[in-house]
Amino acid sequence: MSELADELQMDVGNMSRQVRLYYRLQDRDRPGRLDPQAIDDFYAAHALVTSRTVKNYPQALKQVLGLSDAPVPAAVVTEIKQSLEDICDSQVRTEKRLNNIAKHFKLLLDRLDKQSGCDGVVSEDKFDSE
User: Fold this and answer.
1) 10 Å Cβ neighbour count for 102?
2) Are 1 and 12 in contact (CB under 8 A)?
3) pLDDT reported for residue 117
4) What whole-number distance in Å separates Cα of residue 47 and Cα of residue 34?
5) DSSP 26-93
6) CA–CA separation, 8 vs 13, rounded Å?
7) C-alpha dihedral sign at 122, 123, 126, 130
8) How far is CA 97 from CA 70, 74, 100, in A?
9) What is the pLDDT of residues 40-54, one digit of tens each?
10) 49: Cβ–Cβ under 8 A, 6 or more apart, which residues?
11) 77-99 residue pLDDT tens
């Protein structure tokens, strides 16, 4: 770990804290030696910090591990809202069509009942729309 701290230009105490955080974020026990994935993740976190993409190592580690909450761009939010409105509109149109079909079906059943001489064999409440 001290070699990695030297390569990342960190003091050993800070590196030790970041390693504890790394494994705590993953809900894993810290092994005696850093595994290759952890080393790769620390290099990636270091690149984020040195490029000023993030402010500090905890944020960098969260981002590398996919645990950060990045804000959603406004354009994406607008697009999602529009899609949801389109879905709602489509559901309303579909409901109206289904209600119309149910009414026509009920009328057809009523006519068939009258022609065949049956008196209310089919319960009307099954076809009523709310």
Assistant:
1) 14
2) yes
3) 75
4) 18
5) TT-PPPSS--HHHHHHHHHHHHHHHTTSSSSHHHHHHHHTT---PPPPHHHHHHHHHHHHHHHHHHHH
6) 13
7) positive
8) 41, 35, 5
9) 999 999 999 999 888
10) 55, 56, 57, 60
11) 899 999 999 999 999 999 999 99
Residue identified by tokens 């190592």 is 57
- With a CB cutoff of 8 Å and minimum separation 6, the contacts of 46 are 8, 60
Which tokens in the block code for residue 121? 């064999």
| Rounded to 5°, angle at Cα 54 from 49 and 56 | 60
Q: Measuring CA to CA, how many Å separate 62 from each of 3, 34, 49, 51, 106?
A: 23, 17, 12, 16, 60
Contact criterion met (CB below 8 Å) for 25 and 67: yes
